[in-house]
Sequence to fold (239 residues):
Amino acid sequence: MKAATRQDAIARILRRNSSSTVDALAAEVGVSRRTILRDIAALRDQGFVIYSECGRGGGLQLDPQSVQTTARLSVTEVFALLLGVASMRAARALPFSDLADAGLAKIEKSLPADRVRDLRRFLDCLYVGQLSPQQNLSDLGPMDAALLPAFEQAFLNRLYLRFGYRDAKGVQSFREVEPQAMLILPPLWYLVAWDPQRDDFRHFRMDRISDPECVEGAMFRRKRVPFEDDVCPFNDLPK
Fold:
């Protein structure tokens, strides 16, 4: 169980019960006393008011009026926000961009160091540009909600990605590729990947991808993706 999931469970238990002990929480959640004590400290850092009383009849109590005051966002959630800002800026449709950048900077500062490191690695794979006015958008559809979580795992761990794909003619196939970059040409979004079967790069429209899943144990090396001149890394966008 991840720390965030475990801490949510502890908060629910304390809300449900008027009082609980460290030993009881450890038994219910299935971890050690030391882990519970670390989780209690983390919950307090997030804004929860948790009282502790020593001795017989004592225990841990959560103030019923207590609420979480520190946002706990995943890398995927922050990356989704950054994707929205990047796509709007690329489309030149981002009013109040300075405020958006300032807000995102505050969110980044609230993340633990390991999540910031993962976020920046994720951003290294993001590129944006301008869509050709001749592009046909008549068949533009929604994107699979499973894409971004699958991308996070595949990009950060260098795992092959397997998915179903429907091409421009409607022909369905299954692909297993090395994900190298994400390309945003608003309103179209592409997965740029190395296709071992074709020994070349391929651009897959994300709204045509279905049922993405990572291939555990199959790792690859990141390659340099040859982009056009009008495509640039997200981090190099003007602020």
